[in-house]
Amino acid sequence: MASRSETVxxxxxxxxxxxxxxxxxxxxxxxxELARMAWVGVTKSNRHVYxxxxxxxxxxxxxxxxxxxKFDQINASLNLFRVTSNWSHNKHHTKGYSFSAVLRDSVAxxxxxxxxxxxxxxxxxxxxxxxxxxxxxxxxxxSGVTTHEWSAATKLNLxxxxxxxxxxxxxxxxxxxxxFFEYEADGDRTAVSLRSDxxxxxxxxxxxxxxxxxxxxxxxxxxxxxxxxxxxxxxxxGISLAxxxxxxxDAALTGCWEYDVSNCHYAILAQMxxxxxxxxxxxxxxxxxxALIRAAIADQAGISVRxxxxxxxxxxxxxRTSTWHENAIPQEIGEEAAQRLxxxxxxxxxxxxxAKARAAVMSKCxxxxxxxxxNAFGKSIAGKASxxxxxxxxxxxxxxxxxxxxxxxxxxxIVLVQHDGFVSTARLDVNAxxxxxxxxxxxRLELEERLVAADADKYFExxx
Length: 464
What we know:
Elements: E1 8-9, H1 10-19, H2 28-40, E2 55-56, H3 59-66, H4 70-78, E3 81-83, E4 96-99, H5 101-110, E5 122-123, E6 158-160, H6 163-178, H7 181-185, H8 189-211, E7 221-223, E8 226-228, E9 234-236, H9 246-252, E10 257-261, H10 264-275, H11 281-288, H12 290-301, H13 305-316, H14 328-333, H15 335-342, H16 345-364, E11 373-374, E12 380-381, H17 387-409, E13 414-418, E14 421-424, H18 430-441, E15 447-451, H19 456-461
């Protein structure tokens, strides 16, 4: 079921009514919910963990949106989504949902324009149009608890978008995509994965461009809305630049400055474990020589540097060093590559160091009488949670506190936040940012900056 903040473009609803037989015969509420599912697509927030190219929707959400068993009846009649037959309670995953050919063609037809000729309205679940741009951060977090922590985040709800740069990028991606048909036909894994990424990027460009042409936000601007998670992290709702692929975000925000905390969670874990008496030798070495170590791991495992970086992030979040195909790392790079990765001394050294650091922190960190742990952002996690979940909660608490310090210091410049990174319309003082973060968290974190610019060639090179 859609949240109060979720919307769909009015002309998208109209397009579905015009192109899909029987769609207009459903109730207005059901039309909205179906349109929302189609509009969100395979975004980060609802991408299925186990079924590649599929979306995830819980049966509880579907029942709240359509009524008990009604979604299956509606879907059987309209043929909008293909649904996998299997799901798992023990493995915590739902059935997989993907677009039927009918819906896929309809959405593709809608997203054809590179530049939209006129604005549209944004429609909410109750059928009413949005009249004003919503506040940047929801007044209640994802658990329904009132939050006041992001009062300075007043500029995050409206972002200026470079529509011409997005249109140019779309053309370049489509041209590049055509070159990979031959390799894809031969079953080349890299080519298949790249083409899939490009298709998603082109679709995101279409949606971002449409959302940057609404009556409520104004031409060339996109409205953003965030919700605070149980750890304090901010997550965007719906389609947004905060969850878009980097190449799309770069085109949209051309000319802005992006800042990222260098190896954020590794840096926090090393300092946090040191406070509890444990020195992270392998992690400290990685933090000093990250480019060389990533390149060495990638070379020895036969994977790209980008894939090595992704696996190192997954490792920090508790990914097991197993070739079981449903683990995060084998899913990302394949089982054979995972086997090579686990034979890499540098990777396994980091894996062991993370485990020891986690054990040190978990054994000595402050706990409530019931065993809960409160992180730096003041958010608690239950004692029954796994060690990996508790560790992630502590790391994300520091990360959220650091981001809050940045937003508080430069409220008029920050226009986008992404966990351990943010985008500013002006170049900022990196030293002042680092000092503000240290004052708020007690952690010394290194910030990296870059001038944002669209670069399709670099996008392709990083994936080959």
